[in-house]
Hints:
This protein is mainly alpha-helical. 50% of the residues lie in helices and 0% in strands.
Amino acid sequence: MTRDSALQQQPFSLMARLGAGLVLAAVASLASAQTLPAACGTLRQSWGPFDYRPERYIPETTYRSHAALLAIVEHAHFTPEVENLIRGKTGALPGGDLSYTLGVFPNHHRALIAVSTLALKLKSPQPPETRFSVDCYFRRAMAFRPDDPMVRMVYANYLIQLGEKADAEQQIDAVAATNPDGPLTLRNIALLYFDAKNYDKSLQFVHKAAATGLNVDIIKSKLQQAGQWKDAPPTAADKPASTPGAEPSAEPQRRD
């Protein structure tokens, strides 16, 4: 089945300033980014690109803070109406504003969710007025910042909605391979593996999430309904302590 035919059959369904001395490191990082297909263009442009994550932001071409840059772009292009696919800010349709936002912030998580939601809603791999296909926007984000796990998780969700579960698992596996320890990330990985129907891996990560103290009732219920739930195996802390070399005590004999 081709991606276009899958899109036709899928219903609309989708799901949350460093120092100037680092400029050269940022440019080197961009230059060494993964090679993009020609159809996905280039990451270089007159303004940006900038990392959506404030803790990873490097002012490559501007003195402005991350908060100021994000506010400028979101006020002018990524408004609530655009994010919710109601209307565009600079045009009648939201596609152009989503495209601009993802040009300046290629790994803008919420914009990636919005553009992939729009593609599923319209059953089109490239919504009107967007510069690239949705697949390209994810490829651009991963090329720009390969270490951003949220990009891969949003991409995996999109691929699952298209029925491309094997490709989705590759993205989930890439996140899982980084040995994440954040409770929400662990739970999201479990949910994505469940949606991809890899129940063994879903179970593995839901137990990891539960071990952090996070409530995992939703994914536990899903696994139970699918007949795939198993309690976590006991850990060393769960087992009763025993004295090394101690012999089990014999039951005392009764004397009449």
